[in-house]
Amino acid sequence: MALLQVENLSVQFGGLKALNDVSLQVDTGDFVGLIGPNGAGKTTLFNAITGVVHASAGTIVFDGKSIKGMRPDKIALCGISRTFQNIRLFPKMKVYENVEIGINRIAQYNMLEAVLNTPRKRRLDRETHEHALRYLEQVGILQYKDSYAGELPYGIQRRLEIARAIATQPKILFLDEPAAGMNNDETRDLINFLRALHKQTGLAIILIEHHLEVVMELCRDITVLNLGAMLAHGTPEEIQNDSAVIKAYIGERRNKFHA
Ligand SMILES: Nc1ncnc2c1ncn2[C@@H]1O[C@H](COP(=O)(O)OP(=O)(O)OP(=O)(O)O)[C@@H](O)[C@H]1O
Ligand SMILES: [Mg+2]
């Protein structure tokens, strides 16, 4: 059974069909890509699966259970974690605190224990802190732990978002344009980092990315959306040679595939 099975999903914003009959399957440990031009519906698909927007039709089954219509926090607890196209960190909080917040979502003690600052609460806080540091180390930014998130270089903020997302120990990670705004060297670093992360954790990952080389290198299975609909699905080779994809999406940018 697939880890995530999305079937015939549609999302409507007023008169706009942002998603129309879209299906997607992700197995445990898969690394799949989701590409398509601006406005294709990629982020909307993430939003619909994570419960942020309402799907008007279709089914979403995760880990054997229907999650359609569930609240976003409940869906997160099922083991789905994500980063955002527009980075969403707490800029005035320290780097380690940003990760602790992710962990605390799945914790732990009640209000009374917090007010009384019981030994159990102090122990849990210490464990959360150590846990956060481990994830910062895993994404290679431990040296920034005491900086304020808003003061970090952009690429490091993107890593911090990934640390926060994986600190909840999800079964699947959704990455929405992690290479946005990165130069070639930073993009290359990100590819190596994501490959290593995937290998180490065995996490299933869905990656949205406009930097096509990232998707082509990392993903064996790619879905292409265009104007809310599925345009193609296949291996990087199949996608690169698909005439509908070339026509609708790549056009004059075809050389990007062969860079
Ligand atoms: N909350 C919303 N309310 C109304 N329209 C929306 C909403 N979210 C997205 N849309 C519209 O739905 C369509 C799909 O948007 P979406 O953000 O999913 O595209 P995308 O493929 O992620 O594009 P990009 O590559 O630019 O991030 C767009 O036309 C967008 O304007
Ligand atoms: Mg988007």
Automatic annotation (TrEMBL):
One of its GO terms (molecular function) is ATP hydrolysis activity. The keyword Transferase does not apply. Pfam families: ABC_tran, BCA_ABC_TP_C. GO terms for biological process: D-alanine transmembrane transport; L-alanine transport; L-isoleucine import across plasma membrane; L-valine import across plasma membrane. Keywords: ATP-binding, Nucleotide-binding, Transport. InterPro entries: AAA+_ATPase (IPR003593), ABC_AA/LPS_Transport (IPR051120), ABC_transporter-like_ATP-bd (IPR003439), BCA_ABC_TP_C (IPR032823), P-loop_NTPase (IPR027417). Residues 4-252 form the ABC transporter domain. PROSITE patterns: ABC_TRANSPORTER_2. GO terms for cellular component: plasma membrane. This is Leucine/isoleucine/valine transporter ATP-binding subunit. The lineage of its organism: Bacteria, Bacillati, Bacillota, Clostridia, Eubacteriales.
